Amino acid sequence: MVSVDQLREFMRKQAEADRDRHTLKVSGRTLEEALSQASIELGIPIKRLEYEVVQEGSAGALGVGRKDWNLVVYETAKKKADEEYLPKVDLDLSAKPSAAGAPVDVDGEVFVRLAPEGVLLKAVPPIGRGKRATDRQAIEKLGARGVTEYRANLVSQVVRDASNEWVKVGEFRYNPTGDSALSAEVADQEMKAYISISRPGPGGADLSADSIIELLKMQGIVYGLKEDVIRQLESSPRYGQRILTAEGTYAVNGADAKIVYSFETDRSNIKLKEKNGRVDFRELNLVQNVVEGQILARKVPPQEGASGTTVTGQHLAAKRGKEVKITPGKNVTLSEDGMTLTSDINGQVILSGDRVNVEPLYVVRGNVNLKTGGNVIFLGTVIVQGSVEDGFKVKASGNIEVFGNVGKSELDAEGDVIVHQGINGKNGGLVRAGKGVWAKFIENAFVEAGESVVASDGIINSNVDANINIACHGKRATIVGGRLRAAELVAAKTFGSINGSETIVEVGYDPRSKAKLAENEEAVQTITKELEEVDLNIHTLENLKRAKQKIPEEKENFLQELIDRRNELIAARKSHHDEIESVRAYLASLKTRGKISASLRVYPGVKIFIKDASLEIRNEFRSVTFISEANLVKMTRYEEPDEDFERRR
Predict the structure, then answer these.
(1) Whole-angstrom distance, CA of residue 118 vs CA of residue 92
(2) Quick check: helix, strand or coil at residue 551?
(3) pLDDT at 552
(4) For the CA atoms of 487, 489, 493, 495, what is the dihedral angle to 10 degrees?
C-alpha cells in the first residue's frame, strides 16, 4: 500500500513540476487558430502542447454574437507526474494479469460515433499503468470524422471521466442517405452468420450495436449472437470485412450404453515380479476368482443427447445413445431389469466375446500322474499343486497353472499357461496357450502362444512361437539354441553362447500364419508330385486304349479312378493355392516392424531374420537392437523395451 509520506512526496514534486511549467494565455477565432498562436509564441510544436479552455468560442449568427476561444496553454510534461513520482506499489487495482502473471498495461482510448441524434464521444479508461486518453486524441478523432461543431468543455469532461459511455458532444449535418449499411449472410447450414458493414457516406451515421442486432433479427438471425463482437463494432467498425457475428449450437448425441465390468478384462496390467531371485506368480492375479452372488458387470444405460439450435432459431434434434446388449454366459444370471450380471457359482470369471462366463476350478492336489487319475481334460481352469510328470496331458478351456515343473508332457489351454518353476520338455514336451506362457525357464521343449512367452531365467534349445513377444528378463535371461519366432519383439540379456551354438531368432510376422503358409506350400509340392504320377498313368492307359480300341474292364475302371483322383488333386491344389494367397496377403498387411534386443551381448552363431531380411552373426556384439531397413538387418544402439512389452495387445 502507499503510505502518507509517499503521497506527500508525490504532491510536493508535482507542485514543483507545475511551478516549472511555462503557461500562456491565448485567444483565436477557432481552437486550431489559438493553438497555432501558442505554438508560435512558446516555440513548441502543437503536439507537445496541453491546454485548458477558459472560454468556448462561438461563430455567432451572421457575425453577431461571435466569441473567440480563450485558452491557457502549457508544454506537455516529458513524463506524467504519476509515472515519475507515484510509488508503484498496489496502486492499480484494475490491472489484469497477463499469461506470464505480470499486470497488463493498456492505454485509454476515445471513440467517435456519428448518430442521427448527433456526435457521440466515448472515453475508455486505461488498464494497469497505461496512459489516459487526452483531449488532443479526442479532437483529432473528431476532426478525422469531419466534425467541427462540438462543445470543447464537454469533450474534456468526457475524456476526464472515461466512463465508457457514449455522450453527445456536438452536431453534424445529418444525411440519412449516407448511413452505413449492413448485409448479412447465413452459412454452414445455418450454423454461422456473417455481416459486412459499408463505410458511411457524407453526413451518414454509424451503426449502433442495437441497430446491428435489430437488423440481424429482421433477417431471421436470432440465435447465438456474439454481442461482444457487435459492441466492439459499434466503437471500432470494420468496413468491408466479413465478420462472424452469430454461431449456432450443434446437437450433441447422447452417450452410448456401456457395460462396466467388476473384473479385469484387459490383462495389460500384469507384470512379472521377482522376490528373493524367484518369480512370484501368486502376485500376478492371473486367475480371477469370483464367489456365488458376486456382481460381475453392470450396464450403464444410453444417455439422452443435447439438442442444438441454428442461428435462425431452428431446433436441431439430438440422437439418444445406442443400446448395448449385456449377455450372461455359463453360470451367470441376468437381473430382471436387464442391468446386472451375477455369478451363480464359485469359480473363475472369463470374458469370451461379449459373454461373461464363470468357470469352476479343477484342482489337482499333487502331481499329474497315475496316482491322481492320469490325464486331465477339463472345461474350465486347472490348477496343479504339484508337477506334470512325463507322458501326461493337461487340457483346459480356461487357464492351466502348475506350481511345480512340467516335464515331457503336453499342456494345452485356451487361456494362459503358468508354470511356477520350469518347463523341461526333454526334446518332446509341448506347451500350447491361446494367450500367454509364463515360466521360470524353458528347456528342450516346444512352446506356442497366442500372445507372449515370458521366461525369467532363460530359454534353452527350444522351439518357441509367439504371436506378439518373447522375453527373458531375469538375472540370467539367456536364449541359447533352438528357434524362436515372434511377431514384434524378442528380448533377452544374452543370445547364443561362447561356443557358437546355433540360435535362430525370427521376428516381423505372425509365426502361426508363417507355419500355415509353409504347410500349404509343402502340401502343394506333394500334390503336384502325385498329380504328375497320376497324369502319367492316365496318359499310358489312354494310349493303350487308342492302340487296342478296347482295354480290359479292370483297366477301364482303374482309368476312371485315376481321372477322379486327378480331379480331386486339382481341386485340393487350388484350395491350397487360395490359402497360400490369403496368408501371404495377411502377412503383407502386417504393420509390425519387428525387433530383436540384447541388453548384454550377442555371440557368433546367432542367425537373425526380420521379415525377409537376414543376418548371420560372426562377431560378438554388446548391447544392440536389430531392426530391418531397406530389406536389410541393421544394428542400432540397444533400445530398452517398453514397460508394456509383455502385455497383451
Answers:
(1) 35
(2) coil
(3) 86
(4) 40
Residue 512 is predicted with a pLDDT of: 72
The x, y and z cell numbers of residue 228, run together, are: 461482444
User: Rounded distance, CA 405 to CA 425, Å?
Assistant: 10
Model pLDDT, residue 590: 65
Convert 485-496 to b/e letters by CB count within 10 Å (16 or more is b): bbbbbbbbbbbb
Is the C-alpha dihedral spanning 622, 625, 626, 628 positive or negative?
negative
Cα distances (Å, whole numbers) of residue 636 to 141, 217, 276, 507, 626: 70, 68, 34, 16, 6
User: Cell numbers at residue 266, please?
Assistant: 484387459
Note whether 2 and 89 are within 8 A (CB).
yes
* Closest to 112 measured CA to CA, from 104, 120, 123: 120
Give the separation between CA 280 and CA 365, rounded to whole angstroms.
20
**Whole-prediction pTM value?**
0.44
Q: How far apart are CA 479 and CA 485, in angstroms?
A: 12
Torsion on CA atoms 471, 473, 475, 477, rounded to nearest 10:
20
Say if CB 311 and CB 246 are below 8 A apart. Answer: yes
Distances in Å between the alpha carbon of 529 and those of 532, 539, 569? 5, 16, 10
Residue 588 CB-density burial (10 A; 0-12 exposed, 13-18 middle, 19+ buried):
exposed
Quick one: which of 465, 460, 420 has its CA closest to 444?
A: 460
Q: Given pLDDT bands bounded at 50, 70 and 90, which one contains residue 166? A: very high
Task: List all residues 6 or more positions away from 256 whose beta carbon is below 8 Å from its beta carbon.
Answer: 302, 321, 322, 323, 324
- The amino acid that residue 479 corresponds to is I
Q: Are 141 and 158 in contact (CB under 8 A)?
A: no
Determine how β-strand 606-610 pairs with β-strand 613-616: antiparallel
Q: Which three cell numbers stand for residue 413?
A: 489351454
Instruction: Give the integer Cα–Cα distance in Å for 15 and 81.
Output: 10
| CA distances, 66 to each of 30, 37, 62, 69, 485 (Å) | 11, 19, 9, 10, 106
Sign of CA dihedral 554, 559, 562, 564: negative
Task: Give the three-class secondary structure for 599.
Answer: strand
